[in-house]
Design goal:
- The protein contains 5 helices and no strands.
- By secondary structure, the protein is an all-alpha fold.
- The protein has a domain at 47-139.
- The longest helix is centred in the N-terminal third of the chain and has 37 residues, at 3-39.
């Protein structure tokens, strides 16, 4: 039995031992990079999130307006499209990227939609700030913890 057959397992074992710490280090770096990408929100992501949220909240507000018979000829809103456009632009002013530069809390947005859905026709909604669950201070993500 030559050195090749006896030494090969030893050389391979040594190589594996030397490579293992490097693999662990690479894996740890990958995990840190992945976590950072999940917690970092780009301005494009914030803008996209704000647009989607403005449409979602406008839809909820217009559902309420329809149920309160405020959409149609000679009503507060001539059409559903006009209602959606008006409220979507209002929401963008209230919780858009300039108001919420870190983005929006999706769970809180869901609570806001529920609050709008539960508001009665006699409850003045006006701006989102009138509903506790729809205030910018609750909808906007706060600064990330260090």
């Amino acid at each position: 039995m030559g050195c090749a057959s006896r030494c090969l397992p030893i050389v391979c074992g040594a190589a594996a031992l030397l490579a293992a710490p490097a693999c662990k280090r690479d894996r740890a770096e990958d995990e840190r990079a992945s976590a950072a990408s999940k917690t970092t929100t780009s301005s494009a992501d914030v803008a996209s999130m704000a647009k989607a949220t403005s449409e979602r909240l406008a839809e909820a507000r217009c559902r309420r307006e329809v149920s309160c018979q405020q959409v149609g000829p000679s009503r507060r809103h001539e059409s559903l499209e006009i209602c959606r456009g008006l409220y979507a632009s209002d929401v963008m002013r209230e919780v858009g990227p300039s108001a919420c530069p870190r983005g929006l809390d999706e769970a809180q947005v869901t609570r806001c939609v529920a609050a709008i859905d539960q508001a009665g026709c006699l409850d003045p909604v006006g701006t989102l700030e009138r509903l506790e669950d729809c205030r910018a201070s609750k909808l906007c993500l706060s600064a990330a913890a260090p």
